[in-house]
Design goal:
Blueprint: H1 2-24, E1 32-33, H2 34-37, E2 38-40, E3 46-55, H3 68-80, E4 97-105, E5 114-121, E6 132-139, E7 145-152, E8 174-183, E9 196-201, H4 206-220, E10 225-227, E11 232-236, H5 241-252, E12 255-256, E13 264-267, E14 274-276, E15 285-289, E16 292-303, E17 314-325, E18 329-334, H6 339-348, H7 353-366, E19 372-375
Parallel strand pairs: 13-19
Antiparallel strand pairs: 1-12, 2-9, 3-4, 3-6, 4-5, 5-8, 6-7, 7-8, 9-11, 10-11, 13-14, 15-16, 16-17, 17-18
Length: 376
């Protein structure tokens, strides 16, 4: 009997230790491509914008009495074409709308390539459906013209029916033109001209910067990469253009295991939605908010081995969450100190987004919530 009790005690101790280790081990981060973690400095898009006119509308254009800039634009355009309007002419332009044209110029774009553009009404036009955008220069932040736009405006989902009703699905004041702009000027990009390129991490992290340096040096040899700070990494690149392109292609495909991300809680104050990027736990605290109260207790639980078993005394922390809402609603969560459980319990008893926001802010201020709290 003694031998049986010893075996049972040892088995229980082994299971307890195994469970403790399993809970303490954090899940390993999956390896990511360097392309998904960083970008090459200087390789970026450039925003373009232009002002133009959409014509050919079916009476749904700007009301010229309230949008005088539409009339001025038409008069200026006609004057450039050699047509002078008599002074005091009252123009009723129901088929014309003033619009803003926007797009992005990709890196390494060359003259002759086409771009998709977005056309947005800036007046009081009812609809741009069926209109034609007249030739519109697209300028960058430096005021230079980098593209020309023109074409038929397509308003997606216009007038579509939903479940047998005539509900409008899309905004009629915004449309798109596929391949509606032509690149007229390229943006020069200095890439590795001095024998080195710079990688910029999408999120600043000293741990990730050092891991990227280790991965690049392991792939291409020591001294190839060096970290400038927590975001920028300098990489030695070949001088020849074709060799540099092949080098960057191989660089982007390197797998890097990122460091564990910091705990973060994001809450939408309007809808009450809460998103956590990993398991976020709570320390001991007590929060009272109106008729709601949240109490989190953590107390040690001692587990002693059987006599003469040769085991060791194990001290574990056991948490308990008690949530009260007057009148008479009580939720008790044992062996839990997870924020996810608290949020779920608060939603089940009808807590509003404002209640949840106030409770999370109080927990953060008291130090119970060991995570970054972001309110959107």
């Amino acid at each position: 009997m003694k031998l049986s009790r010893l075996l049972i005690a040892k088995s229980l101790l082994t299971l307890t230790c195994a469970a403790t280790l399993a809970l303490s081990v954090q899940p390993a981060q999956a390896a990511q491509r360097l392309l998904d973690m960083a970008s090459v400095q200087g390789v970026r898009e450039n925003q373009l914008i232009g002002y133009g006119l959409v014509v050919g509308l079916d009476g749904s254009g700007d009301q010229t009495t309230q949008t005088p800039f539409t009339v001025q634009s038409v008069v200026s355009m006609l004057k450039q074409m050699g047509i002078n309007m008599p002074a005091g002419t009252n123009m009723q332009l129901k088929n014309v709308a003033a619009v803003m044209v926007t797009t992005s110029l990709p890196a390494f774009a060359q003259p002759g390539q086409t771009l998709d553009i977005t056309v947005s009404s800036m007046g009081n036009a009812k609809s741009l459906r069926g209109g034609t955008l007249l030739m519109t220069p697209l300028k960058g932040a430096d005021g230079q013209i980098y593209g020309m736009a023109q074409g038929n405006v397509v308003v997606g989902g216009a007038g579509a029916a939903a479940n047998g009703s005539k509900a409008q699905i899309n905004h009629l004041g915004v449309g798109r033109i596929s391949a509606g702009a032509t690149v007229e000027r390229a943006v020069p990009t200095m890439l590795g001209q001095d024998g080195s390129i710079f990688l910029e991490l999408k999120e600043s992290s000293f741990s990730n910067a050092s891991r990227v340096v280790e991965a690049v040096n392991a792939r291409f040899g020591p001294g190839t990469a060096s970290a400038q700070d927590g975001r920028v990494i300098r990489v030695q690149a070949p001088q020849a253009n074709d060799s540099r392109v092949a080098f960057l292609g191989a660089l982007e495909s390197i797998n890097v295991t990122p460091a564990q991300v910091p705990a973060k809680v994001i809450m939408n104050a309007r809808t009450g939605s809460v998103v956590m990027n990993q398991a976020v736990t709570l320390d001991t605290c007590a929060v009272s908010h109106g008729n709601l109260s949240v109490v989190i207790n953590t107390q040690p639980v001692i587990s002693q081995p059987a006599p003469f078993s040769g085991g060791q005394t194990v001290v574990a922390q056991q948490s308990q969450i008690e949530i009260n809402k007057d009148p008479g609603k009580v939720i008790l969560l044992k062996n839990s100190a997870s924020l996810a459980d608290v949020v779920k319990a608060l939603n089940s008893i009808g807590a509003t987004p404002q209640d949840l926001l106030a409770i999370l802010q109080a927990m953060k201020a008291s130090g119970s919530l060991r995570a970054e709290l972001e309110i959107i």
